[in-house]
Design a protein that fits this description.
Belongs to the FAD-binding monooxygenase family. The chain has ten helices and three strands, in the order αααααααβββααα. The protein is mainly alpha-helical. A three-stranded antiparallel sheet has the order 1-2-3, with no helix packed on it. A hairpin with a 4-residue loop joins strand 2 and strand 3. The longest helix has 21 residues.
Length: about 250
Amino acid sequence: MRQRKLTREEQEEAKKDYAELYRKRMTTFAGFSYDFSEKNTFDDSPEEREKFYQELWDEGGFKYWLATYKDMLFDKEANQQAYDFWAKQTRKRIQDPRKRDILAPLKAPHAWGTKRPSLEQNYYEMMDKPENDVVDVNETPIAEFTKTGIVTSDGKLREFDVIALATGFDSLTGGMKNMGLKDIHGVDLNEKWKMGTWSFLGMTCNGYPNMFFLYGAQGPTAFSNGPSCVECQGDWIVDAIAKLRKDDI
């Protein structure tokens, strides 16, 4: 992430560009103040590509993901180049060869950047410490939980005081489905979305004429910069309500 404390002077200097930054972020792929390069991956020589990747890497944040070559998310070979550089940079941070192959394998487990890359400061250094271990459950799946720990398919028991079940969560629809929202016929939203989520523009839902929602299901949401997303949606909702009032709809 390359996080660091900013001086007061740096913050004040940055504010001079806010108006242009706010304008530009509404024109970019993900709502950030930067966008993909105009070049494709193989427009550059290997040496030029390496230099470009390194510059983005050194910047930190989302730049290596969203300010890179414009074909990275859309071309398999281009994506492989991005993954290879990521793996090379990450593997240097892990001294334990077994952990290195699990945490940053040479063969990409999926197209890089199609699952949100984890932003971190020192995650891999922490995982590399001898008191921390990592188990590849693709190789040795969990067989059972016991009173004292977890047994994997190779028969090994690992004992734990606490087990945290990080099995995912319903981040977008869960809250809405649990609020008791009912449509004009009294049907609960949880019932209407039981067979699948649907919306109009990711902001409204048929049968709920006075319900608008921001940063929710089927909106850009997790695929975008949150503040940019909700401001764009908020403007649309305000316009829609103004239209309803003006035309007495």
